[in-house]
Design goal:
Structural class: alpha/beta
Strand content: 15-25%
CATH topology of the largest domain: FAD/NAD(P)-binding domain
Bound molecules: flavin-adenine dinucleotide
Radius of gyration: 22 Å
CATH superfamily of the largest domain: FAD/NAD(P)-binding domain
Oligomer: single chain
Length: about 400
């Protein structure tokens, strides 16, 4: 794989996409639709062989079957090269990505890089999280939690720390699918504080119906093997502590010398191009960008789609000499599942505040399930409708990549 990448470095523009999650897989598929294979070669590097539906990992943890299409099948016939390997470093000066895999790993050169490595659990420096807590931000982590839940007998205590969307969805899923367990949800403020008053009441009713104990205005300062400790000294016994108190991004971007925000996300211009390294783009959870409402775009699948679409337009535009359109960078609201038969759809206003109206119940659950299905479909049919016009690169783009190649060789 690497040899052929090197062999072609003098004839083709090498686009390397790091991460094949919602942002990376979707964008790679759209790039290959629009760029001629005569001039470009697209390589996708991903740690796992399959596409992981990350937003369903709390369901996976309860034992539900979640489809994970093989990326080799997803990209079959597209011309995209798949490299299953873990990215360990990016050197934006030499335009090289270092990867590790069972075969020993290696280096992959690029002319244009799209960085979409997503995010992981954030412990916020709370001691004991890494050692004792479970989480649902990746498939291996969700599998570990699943094994733990399977071990718990009647009355086993599951403590979900953090009432963001992932915490609420997780607590509801655990309580609905394992009614023999005792599920507690710990909120730093009022439960569901980012929802409208009506939606908050709906959430409380759901917690009561599912037997979830909501503990509010409580901050956890330490996690131990069988208990967690709050800042006011309260101790909560726990057989499985599930940490859902936030996401943080992979430190590779910051370590590489790319300009990053305090969150570690890559700072980009309006076209998702790194402000420090113009042939690097970022999308999805890894990117720090301001939405159309003037606020940082939150980590979400919708943001992954918008930022990935913008990065794709910019890469194609610059390489083929076409005008770059600004795509929308909007965050319309939150779709929260509350188990399989209940949910909340909460739209937000231009400032990101919840609008008074919300939709709750079965209909909301069905809509959320539909959105999840569409997201999977969009990713696993990356070149649906191909061919869109696959454009040739400008002479300048080809020349500059060749120059870059000689410099890197
Ligand atoms: C349980 C849960 C529920 C969620 N629910 C929702 C929801 O309802 N709605 C919503 O909008 N968002 C939800 N999210 C957030 C959403 O999943 C993310 O915002 C979205 O996945 C971001 O897309 P991405 O492409 O940036 O990252 P990801 O989808 O995480 O993709 C990153 C990819 O990079 C790969 N990767 C990571 N590190 C490396 C490495 N070093 N080397 C190689 N490959 C690597 C990963 O394997 C993965 O394939 C949820 C998240 C979780 C965990």
């Amino acid at each position: 794989m690497e040899q052929s990448n090197r062999h072609e470095q003098h004839t083709k523009h090498r686009i390397v996409v790091l991460g094949a999650g919602y942002a990376g897989a979707f964008t790679a598929g759209n790039l290959v639709r629009r760029l001629s294979p005569t001039d470009t070669v697209i390589t996708v590097v991903n740690a796992e062989e399959e596409f992981v539906q990350r937003l369903r990992m709390h369901q996976f943890a309860t034992g539900q079957h979640i489809d994970s299409p093989a990326l080799a099948d997803v990209f079959a016939g597209t011309g995209i090269r798949l490299r299953v390997a873990r990215v360990t470093a990016v050197d934006p000066e030499r335009q090289i990505v270092t990867v590790a895999d069972p075969a020993g790993g290696g280096e992959i050169g690029y002319d244009t890089l799209l960085y979409t490595l997503g995010s992981a659990v954030a412990d916020h420096g709370v001691p004991g999280v890494a050692e004792h807590a479970f989480h649902v931000t990746s498939r291996p982590a969700a599998l570990r939690l699943r094994e733990r839940l399977d071990q718990l007998g009647d009355g086993g205590r599951v403590l979900v720390v953090g009432d963001g969307w992932t915490g609420i969805e997780s607590a509801a899923e655990f309580a609905e699918s394992r009614p023999n367990l005792s599920v507690t949800l710990i909120a730093r403020g009022e439960l569901g504080a980012r929802l409208s008053p009506g939606a908050r009441r709906h959430l409380r009713r759901t917690c009561e119906r599912l037997g979830i104990t909501a503990v509010e205005h409580t901050t956890i300062e330490a996690v131990e093997a069988t208990q967690v400790i709050a800042t006011d000294g309260t101790v909560f016994a726990s057989h499985a502590t599930v940490w859902t108190a936030g996401f943080s991004v992979n430190p590779i971007a910051a370590a590489s010398g790319l300009e990053v925000a305090s969150t570690g996300q890559i700072v980009v211009d309006r076209t998702m191009r790194s402000v420090s390294h113009p042939n690097v783009y970022a999308a999805g959870d890894s990117v720090y960008t301001i939405g159309d409402n003037g606020r940082p775009l939150p980590m979400s699948c919708a943001s992954a789609g918008h930022t990935g679409g913008q990065a794709m337009d910019a890469i194609v535009g610059r390489l083929t000499g076409r005008k770059i359109e600004y795509t929308k960078l909007v965050y319309p609201g939150n779709h929260i599942s509350l188990g399989r038969r209940d949910g909340i759809l909460q739209t937000v206003d231009a400032k990101g505040h919840p609008k008074p109206k919300y939709m709750g119940g079965r209909k909301a659950a069905r809509i959320k399930a539909g959105i999840v299905k569409i997201s999977l479909w969009a990713v696993s049919h990356p070149t649906f409708g191909m061919p869109k016009r696959q454009r040739r690169l400008t002479a300048a783009a080809i020349a500059s990549s060749r120059d870059d190649d000689r410099a890197a060789a």
